[in-house]
């Protein structure tokens, strides 16, 4: 039995930015927005502005006597050689990508299971990214590989110059440790990806020039590329529509590498797709909900996952269910094959991910934000699930699994216990394989879970991590973190940097489980999107109010932090309730929501937020867009905005414009832009440590230093 994920090449990300400078459909243009020139990522004027802001911020933060110590603490943790080297199990060994002080850009390396089970692992270097970058004069960032199953010897290596999502692709031989001479190469950077059909054929979804990318700047065509032929001459096998978010073709294959079907999908919004299968010489649209997706193969069955109730005849499969059809029956009659229920969520349960060995499939779930892992088997004509023996009250996941054997590894983590890696060969319960060292002193610290009541009465859970000796008297500096979007869950985990740099110094940490996330399944997300997105912001504010009410902290010592969608969250919070917070870290954010569809790849997120070009939907967004909500006469909590020049996802324009508007109004603020990192900021550990130190110094100055700030 095997669970095999299919590749939706159309879901590969796109590159680039289109800057629109004309006012249209009520969207602000240069006459209404004096900072629109900051949307040009690398113009001389914009970069001069960035350098001036960086210099100002560094001159202030780096002179703080705590800065050097904090940066050193962060770097020591990030470079620690005793941290767990997580691996993926392949036929020829265990593979790991590793970055440290000696290898800042990283090593792709492998070892044996026998060596990995010991304390002194012997590694064999496969690809030295630092050496490659030095030889080619590039700031290469390793972005992963796509390999030909089942041997996974031939791989397409993805490399990014400076950390942006756009990559080049080169064929690499894992056995010879060399790029293949005369092999498949895509040197023009772009979004998109590839999938191996066989040793001499790739499915390619890229920007081929002309009319081949969507408004969201994702590919919407797929080509069949034969070895030894030019990519430009490759046959187009699938084409979506320019109005799609993305579109592309992929494969359904089993653990032996056998391809059973060609599939395709068109992302008609970020959360909705039309799915197809190549059947009888044409693309047949599958009769399935737009918020459902094809999964993989389990014991001769093809699986599907759905985010909405799925009615099939007199059956109704509930949202978040795992559904299966007999693979051979489905290949004969894709829309008529009988569907059966594999698993359905109970109250406050949701599935999170999974993996599979040669003979069993595994699925991680959340049960009231507590992790479990289920083993799934098809026995005697029915689906059987059993719980894997792993720690209670922890966040659990499948780390890696072998497609050749029953070997599998799991992870467990919580706020105060170092992360643990578990191993099983299928013959018994998982056993501890490796444990992360303790990177901060958790003596006396404890975790509690509370509920806040949001504006509409909804109960919103949150976790509090308390430093040793904390009294609930409202005098503790507290950092509130949230995300609340795209059905992404925020879960307890061992946050070594937060623990060392914040909790050890006497700060409290709060993690909010907001609507818009996925902590309680698709419904938790769908109830707070588009016209209801304000509910996410209300939930976050409610958690902040509840923390004050319970005596965890007070508004003068409450800071908030979030990145990307979470940066938008923080922006809405400090503009809607500036009185409730005294620090706000707005990281790699969305911020100008009236122009978000025109900046970076923002058009792809219309499904989450709405479309500002449509008057009714623009009205929803105008109600909270932080950039427009920064107004004269209001005192804001001196936010720290940071971004990355190379971020081709949310784009640095959002953070830049927020800072520029605050400056225009004479408000206190700080701004920093990493000029090489991508969407996550920092391409190596030194840069990441610097970003961490800047943010913690800012928090300490705002929340710990007698609540005084510049």
UniProtKB/TrEMBL annotation:
The keyword Signal is annotated on this UniProt entry: yes
Residues of the signal peptide: 1-23
Residues in Peptidase S9A N-terminal domain copies: 32-426
Record-linked SUPFAM superfamilies: alpha/beta-Hydrolases, Peptidase/esterase 'gauge' domain
Highest rank taxon of the organism: Bacteria
Pfam families listed in its UniProt record: Peptidase_S9, Peptidase_S9_N
Keyword list, A-Z: Hydrolase, Protease, Serine protease, Signal
Protein name according to UniProt: Prolyl oligopeptidase family serine peptidase
Origin species: Qipengyuania psychrotolerans
């Amino acid at each position: 039995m095997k669970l095999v994920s299919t590749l939706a090449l159309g879901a590969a990300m796109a590159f680039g930015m289109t800057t629109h400078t004309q006012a249209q459909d009520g969207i602000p243009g240069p006459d209404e927005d004096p900072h629109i020139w900051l949307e040009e990522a690398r113009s001389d004027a914009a970069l001069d502005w960035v350098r001036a802001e960086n210099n100002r911020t560094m001159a202030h933060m780096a002179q703080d006597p705590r800065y050097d110590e904090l940066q050193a603490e962060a770097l020591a943790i990030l470079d620690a050689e005793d941290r767990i080297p997580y691996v993926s199990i392949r036929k020829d060994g265990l593979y790991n990508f590793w970055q440290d002080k000696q290898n800042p850009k990283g090593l792709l390396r492998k070892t044996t299971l026998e060596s990995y089970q010991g304390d002194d692992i012997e590694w064999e270097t496969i690809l030295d990214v630092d050496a490659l970058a030095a030889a080619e004069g590039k700031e290469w960032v390793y972005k992963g590989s796509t390999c030909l199953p089942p041997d996974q010897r031939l791989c397409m290596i993805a490399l990014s110059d400076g950390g942006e999502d756009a990559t080049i692709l080169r064929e690499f031989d894992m056995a010879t440790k060399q790029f293949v001479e005369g092999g498949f190469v895509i040197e023009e950077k772009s979004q998109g990806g590839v999938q191996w059909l066989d040793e001499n054929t790739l499915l390619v979804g890229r920007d081929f020039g002309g009319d081949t990318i969507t408004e969201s700047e994702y590919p919407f065509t797929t080509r069949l590329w034969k070895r030894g032929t030019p990519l430009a001459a490759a046959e187009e096998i699938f084409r979506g529509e320019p109005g799609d978010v993305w579109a592309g073709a992929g494969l359904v294959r089993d653990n032996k590498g056998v391809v059973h079907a060609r599939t395709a999908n068109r992302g008609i919004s970020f959360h909705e797709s039309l799915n197809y299968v190549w059947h009888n010489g044409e693309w047949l649209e599958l009769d399935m909900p737009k918020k459902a997706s094809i999964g993989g193969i389990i014991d001769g069955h093809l699986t599907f996952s759905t985010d909405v109730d799925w009615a099939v005849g007199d059956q109704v499969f509930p949202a978040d269910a795992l559904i299966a059809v007999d693979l051979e029956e489905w290949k004969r009659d894709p829309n008529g094959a009988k569907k059966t229920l594999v698993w359905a969520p109970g109250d406050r349960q949701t599935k999170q991910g999974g993996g599979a060995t040669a003979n069993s499939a595994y699925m991680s779930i959340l049960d009231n934000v507590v992790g479990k892992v289920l083993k799934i088997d098809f026995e005697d004509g029915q689906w059987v699930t059993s719980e894997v023996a792993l720690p209670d009250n922890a966040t659990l996941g499948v780390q890696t699994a072998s497609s050749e054997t029953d070997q599998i590894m799991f992870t467990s983590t919580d706020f105060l216990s170092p992360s643990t890696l578990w191993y099983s060969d299928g013959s018994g319960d998982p056993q501890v394989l490796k444990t992360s060292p303790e990177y901060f002193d958790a003596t006396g610290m404890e975790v509690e879970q509370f509920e806040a009541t949001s504006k509409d009465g909804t109960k919103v859970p949150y976790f509090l991590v308390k430093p040793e000796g904390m009294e609930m008297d409202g005098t503790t500096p507290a950092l509130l973190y949230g995300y609340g979007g795209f059905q992404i869950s925020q879960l307890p985990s061992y946050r070594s940097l937060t623990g060392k740099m914040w909790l050890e110094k006497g700060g409290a940490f709060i993690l909010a489980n907001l609507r818009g996330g996925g902590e309680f399944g698709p419904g938790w997300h769908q109830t707070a999107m588009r016209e209801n997105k304000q509910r996410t912001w209300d939930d976050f504010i409610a958690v902040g109010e509840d923390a004050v009410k319970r005596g965890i902290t007070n508004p003068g010592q409450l800071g908030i932090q979030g990145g990307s969608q979470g940066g938008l969250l923080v922006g809405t919070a400090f503009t809607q309730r500036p009185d409730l917070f005294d620090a706000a870290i707005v990281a790699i954010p969305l911020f100008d929501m009236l122009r978000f569809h025109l900046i970076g790849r923002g058009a792809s997120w219309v499904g989450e937020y709405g479309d500002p070009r449509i008057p009714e939907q623009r009205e929803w967004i105008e109600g909270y867009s932080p950039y427009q909500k920064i107004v004269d006469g209001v005192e804001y909590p001196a936010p720290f905005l940071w971004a990355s020049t190379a971020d081709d996802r949310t784009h640095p324009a959002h953070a830049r414009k927020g800072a520029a508007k605050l400056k225009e109004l004479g408000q206190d603020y700080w701004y920093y832009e990493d000029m090489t990192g991508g969407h996550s900021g920092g391409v190596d550990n030194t840069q990441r440590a610097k970003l961490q130190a800047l943010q913690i110094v800012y928090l300490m100055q705002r929340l710990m230093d007698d609540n005084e700030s510049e």
